[in-house]
Design a protein that fits this description.
Mean pLDDT: 74
Helix content: 55-70%
Strand content: under 5%
């Protein structure tokens, strides 16, 4: 059974490329990311990153999916000890700060804002 978040990922792709192409894109993106399911925020983030790498309109969809996965983690910081490490490509399910805050790595030329 697909989760609602997983279904939402696929629906976004269908709106952009249609049902048949969405099946191909989803399978390819999951294969590239080494995923069998989109059952966690980390899996959806990794899938989104693969769509970004595919480029074009899929990059926009991938960005939306990746951001939604990050926001999902941000809404429940204590649930799985999630730390966003987007720029480094590390999994989202690493440990959070001791006070429960989620942090993102600094981007070149920018400082983290506390």
């Amino acid at each position: 059974m697909e989760s609602s978040a997983s279904s939402a990922c696929v629906e976004k792709i269908v709106r952009v490329v249609g049902v048949e192409e969405a099946e191909r894109v989803t399978s390819e993106g999951m294969r590239r990311a080494g995923l069998s399911e989109l059952d966690s925020a980390d899996a959806r983030h990794r899938f989104g990153v693969e769509l970004i790498r595919m480029g074009g309109l899929l990059a926009g969809v991938g960005n939306a999916i990746a951001v939604e996965a990050i926001l999902e983690c941000d809404q429940a910081p204590g649930e799985s000890g999630v730390r966003t490490k987007v720029a480094s490509g590390q999994p989202l399910d690493a440990s959070a700060e001791p006070d429960g805050r989620l942090t993102a790595p600094s981007l070149p030329g920018r400082e983290n804002v506390a």
